[in-house]
Amino acid sequence: MNMSTRRILRDKKGIAEALGVTIIVMTLLVAVGGVVANYAILSKQAGALSSLSVEVTNRAAAYASALNADLGTPQVPSTARECSTTTQVCTQIVNVTTGADQVTLRVQADAVYAFGTAVTQDVTLYATEVTHVTGMDADGGYVWGRTGDGPRFRVWGLSDGEPVEVSDDALDPTAGNRWVTVDDRAGIDSTGALWVWGKNNIGQAGVGSTSTTPVAPKKVGSNFRYVVTDDDRGYAIDRDGRLWVWGKNNAGQLGLGHTTNVTAPTKVSSLASVRFVDVAIGTNNAIALTSDGLLRVAGAAQAGFSDTSGTSWRQLTPGTRYTDIAASASDGTLALITTAGAIVQNGATLSSPSGVKFTTVAKGGTAGYAIAMNGDLYSWGQGAAGQLGQGGVTSSTAVVKVTGAPRVIDVEGSKTGALAVTATGQLYYAGTIQLPYVGAGNVKSSSTFVKLLNGSVYRGVAGNAGDESFAVLDQDGNLLSVGAGTPGLWPITWEGGNDQLIRMPTPAGFGG
């Protein structure tokens, strides 16, 4: 004991004073403790409110993503109550007010843990008119552009803004010209010019004549935005959504009303009022997707549908709407994604995990691939070469998630393999593919998706279901080749080694 305490204990008055001081101190401590406790509660409430505001913004962003999932046929996003298991917050869109160029969402968010915290906020989404994608940003998001012509689409976001304007007066090759979309026998550059090349014994190169030797790249048109080819024909869509065709036409697969081969890109004039967004090449036929989500087919009848052959573009399954298509000329299958996000193959809905919605579909020779809304990769079909990426060589009639694969933004199949581009721009492969080098092909085989090469960043890939060739675009718009048969997409002098992609030289007159 110290001296002052002993003095208080010797005196009764001192004891009383001491008790009084103690009571006062205890009262003060209780009061201070209450303030501390209340401050802690308020701090937690403030943190909870901040979390709720974040979830409100996230829900609005998800609403915008749903609107943007299919620009040609806009979806109606869900407004139902949804709960996050990670942050333990639930959100519900209680009101949607639609304006000319904006949508205002009233979002209610509440915490499912203590304090009963809830907020209701209004968030406005703004619309921006665009015509095409010009590239991808560092986060893997699309960079939109707009030209003076072509079909216009609305892209929704949390802030308003203008896309990159591409002047119609600047449609000639420049020093900055780049490839923006390619297949193994044709490509479109950043000015909208259509280039063709390759085998031409029946005029399938599209240069207006036939030849016994392959054709070097040649510009044959302007104002295009999409092209797809196979070994004997090609289809392209211009900026107005019109369809152009060329090549083999023995079954009327070009849809021009006759069965004569066509040696140059020719507009399908019978469909002047129809706008197209995609084309898939099947077995002696072609299937096109219109801007309203309907299908047109030309040539041989499509298996799995109530269809008969014909030389004109006829409507397939009227009333059913789709968002993406892919076909294989090798096995005659047609894969589709419905507006509900389900996968249909040859008219039958494939079994897939419950609740998964798909955005992209691709076909190899005998296998199929799809990308879910969250970027997960799925596959189905024959897997004898390991091309399903499921870790074995068995086949699957159901759509199965590729375990261990990174999230992807693009995928394409070939005869016995597949290439995928991840969200970070890396190139992965599964199955059996051949890398080019002088004289032959260096065979690579894997039953799981593994990284193919290091050091480069890619943004797109196109393949051919009938062979092992691929066309690859890197982030700078350079065109590269993967595959066997010839050293590259068109004849070049190649003196490199194996285990590397061939960077194709820019054609004469391309620019840059």
Q: What topology emerges from the helices and strands here?
A:
Blueprint: H1 3-10, H2 12-68, E1 82-84, E2 89-98, E3 102-111, E4 118-130, E5 132-136, E6 142-146, E7 153-157, E8 164-165, E9 179-182, E10 186-189, E11 194-198, E12 215-221, E13 224-229, E14 233-238, E15 243-247, E16 262-267, E17 276-281, E18 285-290, E19 295-299, E20 310-316, E21 322-327, E22 334-338, E23 343-345, E24 348-349, E25 358-363, E26 367-372, E27 377-381, E28 396-401, E29 408-413, E30 417-422, E31 427-437, E32 440-451, E33 458-463, E34 470-474, E35 479-482, E36 502-503
Parallel strand pairs: 6-8
Antiparallel strand pairs: 1-2, 2-3, 3-4, 4-7, 5-6, 9-10, 10-11, 11-12, 13-14, 14-15, 15-16, 17-18, 18-19, 19-20, 21-22, 22-23, 23-24, 25-26, 26-27, 27-28, 29-30, 30-31, 31-32, 33-34, 34-35, 35-36
Helix pairs in contact: 1-2
Could you characterize the architecture of this molecule?
The chain has a domain at 44-165. It has two helices and 36 strands. It is globular. Mean pLDDT is 81; it is low at 1-45 and 165-175. By secondary structure, it is mostly beta strands.
Judged by helices, strands and strand pairing, the structural class is: mainly beta
Q: What does the main sheet amount to?
A: 5 strands, antiparallel
What characteristic shape results from the CA principal axes? globular
**What is the count of helical runs?**
2
User: Could you give the order of strands across the largest sheet?
Assistant: 1-2-3-4-7
Termini separation (Å)? 91 Å
Per DSSP E runs of 2 or more residues, the count of β-strands stands at 36
What is the residue-averaged pLDDT? 81
Low-confidence stretches: 1-45, 165-175
**Radius of gyration, Cα only, in angstroms?**
31 Å
Beta-strand residue fraction: 35-45%
**Percent of residues in helices:** 10-25%
